[in-house]
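Ticket reopened. Same input as before:
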Amino acid sequence: MKLRNYLLLTLTASIGLPMMAKTSSPIIVSTDDTEIVMTVAENGNLVYNYYGKKFNNVNPYLTKQYREQPDNGAGFAPQAYPAYGGFVTITPALKLVHADGSHTTHLKYDSHKVTKTGDGVTRTDICLKDPLYNIALTLFYTSYDKENVITESAMLTNNEGGLLTIENLASTYLPLHADSYYLTHFHGVWATEMQLVEEQLHPGIKSVESKRGVQATQTANPAFLLSLNGPAREDSGDVYGGALAWSGNYKLTFEQDECGRMNVVGGVNDFASTYHLNTGESLTTPEMVWTFSNEGRGKVSRNLHDWIRNHALAHADMERPVVLNSWEGAYMNFDEKTITDMIDDAAKIGVEMFVLDDGWFGNGEYARNSDHAGLGDWQVNTQKLPRGIDYLAKHAVKKGLKFGIWIEPEMVNPKSQLAESHPEWIVKSGDRDKLQIRQQWILDLTNPAVQDFVVKTFDDVLALSPDISYVKWDANRFVTDFGSEYLPADRQSHFWIDYTKGLYDVYDRIRAAHPEVMIQLCSSGGARLDMGALKYHDEFWTSDNTNSLDRIRIQNSTNLFYPAIATASHVSTSPNHQTGMMAPLKYRFDVAMSGRLGLELQPKHLNEEEWGFAKEAIATYKKIRPIVQFGDLYRLKNPEDGTGWASHQYVAKDGKEAVFFAYSLKYHGRTTFFQTRLKGLDPNKQYRITELNKKDWPSFYGDGKVFPGDYLMNEGISLGIGNNFDSTVLHIQEI
Ligand code: DGJ
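Engineering reply: fixed in the latest deploy. New output:
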C-alpha cells in the first residue's frame, strides 16, 4: 500500500470520520474546450478533482478504474468549497461561527441539479450541508459553452434557529497542482491604473485585495492570470484567467501549501466585514468569472471578450459612437456658447456623441465652478446655462450628434444643499470628523432612502431633456472611516457588502427604467473597473491619463480582460495635461483608435493641419470600427517585454479583415527594425494591406500590395518605426 494511502486510512480510522457511502457519478461542469470535474467521496466530501482542458474522449473520472482508487476522496483531497473545520487548514472559502459558538463547519454533498438556462448556457447547482448544523451552502456554476467561461458563486442559508456569524464567504476556490505558478496581477494609482506585474508564487500566501470600497480597482484589480509551469505566454501553455464580478472590497488569495498545491480563494474581502444571518436568511456571493486556455493568455483574453460581449455588457451588439467629452477641453469653465461651439466643431470633424462633463449644476454659493461645491445639487446652473440642458441637447441633435451628460450621484460636497439637508445620509464613523477627498464625502448607499435619492437623481437628470442618450457616471473618492447612521451598531460590519448591494439595486432600477441609455462606468478613470459593474454599463473610462505612451500599457493590461468596444480611449491635447508629455497627433490617434475612439480636447485649439488629420482619422476609424469593436484580439508584441515596441491586431470574426497597430515606445537606433508575424489570418488566402493614418510617407514597404496569409503569418512584416512616437496602423483585407 502506498504510504499516502496508508496514512489517510490510518488517520480516518483513528479519528473515526463518518464513512458516508454517499457516492454518485462525477459532477462535470463543461464548456466546448474546458471542464471542471468534482466527485463525491466516501466520506461525503465534494472533491475538486480537475479544471482544465476538456478530455478528448471519455472523461477518465467516469471510468471504473478511477472510482476504485483506494484513496478516492479521503479527508485530505481538495474540496470544491473548503470550509474551516476537519483537515482544512488552508485559507478557507467559508468560515462561520455557529449559533452555539462553534467555529467549525463540515460540508458534505447533499444534492445537485443541472439546468439549461439558455442557448449554450448551463447552470449546475450543488447543495452541501453540515451533518451537525442546519445550514445549506449552494454552489452555482454557470458554464458558457462557446466562450469557455465558467462562473462560480455561493449562497449560504441559515436554518440553525439562531444567529449565524459569517467571517468569510468566498465566491470560489480552485486547487491546482504544477511545478511552478506565475501570477499576473495589477497595481496602480490615479492616472496610472492597471500596471502589470508577473511574479512567480512561492510557498506562503500572496493576496491581491482592496479595502477602499467605491474605488476598489484603483490600486489593484480583481482580475488576474495564473500560468502553470512558467510565465504566461501568448499562444501556448496553461493559463487560467479569473475576474471577480464585485464593485466593493475584494480579496484574492493564492496559497501554495505544503503539498505544493496552489489554492486560489476569491471573493468579497473579509476585512471588517463580518456578516450576520438570522435564521431563514441567506447571503449570496458575487460571481467569480473563470476561463482556462491551454493555448496561452491570448485565448484567455478572447474568451473573456466574447463572454463580456455576449453576456456582461449593455448594448454589446451596437457600434459605439465617436465621442467628444468636454472635460479636458473646457473643465468647469464654460458657458452655453463654449458648449455649442464645441458641438459645432464636433459635428464638423465627424464626432457622433457630445458629452457634457462636470460643472453644469449647482447654483449660487454652491455653483459647481470648481470641485469645492455643488455635488449633490443636481439642478442646472442657470448662470452658465440659462436655456438649460435641453437647449444644448437639441443643439447637438440638430447638428447630427447625440448628447450625453456627467453625474456623480453617490457623492456630496460639504458645500451643497444636500449636505445641509441630509447629514444623516453621509458615510461616517460615529462622531469622528468626516475626511474629505477632493472636497467631497460619500453618500451611504446601505440606506434605502439614499438609494431612492440616487435613482431619482438619475431620473431627474434624464428628464432635463428627452435627447440625453448617454450618461457618464463618475465616483471620485474611496471610503475612509467607514460607518453608517442607517445600520444598527451591531451591524456596522455589514457596511461594505450592503453598500455594493445597494449600488447594484440602484443600477438594476436604473437599467429597468432606462434600458436604452448608454452609461459610461467612470471612477476618476478606471478606479471601478470590474465585471460586476460593467454589466450595467456600455463602456468604461479607462484612465484619466490620456497620454498616449502611458495609455499603450494601461490599455494593453486592461484589454487582457475587458474588450476594446468598452475601452474609452480619447485623443487629448499636447502637451498632455496629466504628464506634460508631447506626442504627435498621429501617434495619439493611432493609440486611441485601438479602443472606443473619442476626443478629450477643445477642437478649436487644433490648427488647420491637425484638423484635417483628425477629421480623416475619425472617418477612417468608422470604417475599421466593427473590426476593433467586435473582432478577436491577437497580441503580437508586448509593451511589457522591454523590446520598446507594442503591437496587436483585431481580426473580424469572419476572418476576412483585420486591423494591425504597432507603436514604438522609445528610440531604437538606426539599425534595429520592427518585425513581427501576423496572427489569426487564413494561410491559404491573399490579403491586401493598406496603411492608415499615413502622415508623410508609409512606414510599411508593402502599402497597397497583396500578400499570402501564409507569408504574413510565418515570415511576417517589418516596419520603419524606430523613432520615439512612431506608429503604424494597417488595414488587412482578404481579396
Ligand atoms: C474624473 C473623471 O475621470 C474625469 O474624466 C472627469 O469626469 C472628472 N472626474 C470630472 O470631475
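Residues 327, 357-358, 406, 474, 476, 522, 524-525, 541, 544 surround DGJ (CB under 6 Å). The chain has 14 helices and 38 strands. Please confirm and we'll close it.
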